[in-house]
Each structure stands twice: as C-alpha cells, then as structure tokens.
Amino acid sequence: MRTLYLSILAALLLFVPNAAAHTYLDTTNPEDGTTITAPLQKIELTYSGKIEEGSTFIVKGASGSEFKPATVTVENGLMQGTFDEALPNDTYTVSWNSISEDGHPLSGQFSFTVNAPLDEVTEGNTLSEESTEPQVEAEQTETNEEDTQTNTATPLLIVGGLLLVIIVISLVTLMKRKRK
User: Fold this and answer.
1) How far apart are the C-alpha atoms of 176 and 173, rounded to whole Å?
2) Most CB within 10 Å of its CB: which of 23, 122, 123, 158?
3) In this structure, what is the dihedral angle of CA atoms 101, 102, 106, 111, given to the nearest 10 degrees?
4) What is the dihedral angle through the alpha carbons of 6, 9, 14, 17, rounded to the nearest 10 degrees?
5) In this structure, are residues 33 and 112 in contact, taking their beta carbons and an 8 Å threshold?
6) Cβ(67)–Cβ(56) under 8 Å?
7) Which tens digit of pLDDT belongs to each residue from 48-65?
8) Which pTM was predicted?
9) Crossing angle (nearest 10°) for helices 2-15 and 154-179
10) How far lies 3's CA from each of 7, 8, 174, in Å?
11) Sign of dihedral through CA atoms 66, 71, 77, 78?
12) Quick one: which H or E segment has residue 105?
C-alpha cells in the first residue's frame, strides 16, 4: 500500500504546472491606452523572459485595416516591429502571438491612438534619427497583464484537479474494500 501512495504522489508531482516560470508580456511601447503625438514607425513588446523566433504581431486600425510590420526582430525578451512608413492617425489594436522559451504559446492585445500633427505625418512619413521615441500624452492608463494575455496554465490546472479527484476517490474506495 505504501508503494501505491508513493506512486500516486510521484504522478501528481509530474502534473503540477509551474505557472511562476512562464514568460509574460511585461511592457509595450507604445503603452496600452496611450495617445502618441508624433509619427510612429516602431512598436516594441518586452517580455519577462526570452521568447522564440516565430513570435509576431499584427496592427489593426479602427476600420479593420491591417498594418503588418516590414521587419520583426526577436532578441531575448524583446520583439520589435518596424514599419516602412509612419502609421496614419487612427486608433490601433495590436494582436500579438509569442512563443516563450519553454514552448508555451502566449497571446494578447493592447491598443493605442496615433494623433500626430498632419504636417509631420505627411512629410516623408519617416522619423528623424533624433526623434525615434514617440511623445506620449501625460494621461495614460495602466496595462492589466491579466486582461491582455491568454492564461495557458488554466487547462493544466483543470486536468490536474480532475486527476486529483480521481485519485482521491480511488484511494477511498480501496480503503473501504480493505476494511471489509
């Protein structure tokens, strides 16, 4: 009987998810909910850990038009997308899909608004070397990471809970049979 208990304990430990080790989206530039008042050609997503190649994002305007970055680079925990031309004034939603170093898929979205003066947007649609950082209005909303990410640990917790219930029921049944 002792061997059975140890086997069950070992099996449970194998199926316990380690949620603390998973990578998550830490910050974005531009930040969620901000208004950018300068031409914008680069979007950055910074993660709490390393992410893999194949991670990407798509930018959609309020009308549903898609803006795909000309280049996307992934290095350690930073994903950068650069556009050939500055994004026109509009409200945008960035939908991102990433792969953490441990292979878990991550996804979510955030939004921002570009409201650059029209003369800056139409003059060549590029940012000068000196002004690569967008200007952000003082009032910003905080990003709630739990709202913007898909929780990949939930299915593992459900399966682990079901296994635990099955094991407990099996043990109770075995104990009752043994007493008879």
Assistant:
1) 5
2) 23
3) -30
4) -170
5) yes
6) no
7) 999 998 899 999 999 999
8) 0.58
9) 170
10) 6, 9, 14
11) negative
12) strand 105-114
